[in-house]
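ok trying again, last paste got cut off:
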Amino acid sequence: MFLAENPLCKCFECKRLNRVRAANVIDHDPPHRGDRDAFWDRRRWVPLNKRCHDSFKQRLEKSGTIAGADKGGVPLDPRHPWNQRAEG
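nice, full thing came through this time. structure:
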């Protein structure tokens, strides 16, 4: 119903990376972790596309790391050793 009401929502991860893809999955931020009330709380709903949900978001929730790099090859995760070295 959320996606039907918002047919032009864009995946927040793709938007962050300047990509345009329609969202077709509803994610929860913060994750609901099986809490039924949190699952149905529309304030937690975030539009994602299936590719980002099944890769980027799942990896982030399971490992706490952000996968990938920007166009210049710099890792996206601020905690990546490359980024830590650049700051220090």
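cool. The radius of gyration is 15 Å. Helices lie at 2-5, 12-16, 36-39, 50-63, 81-87.
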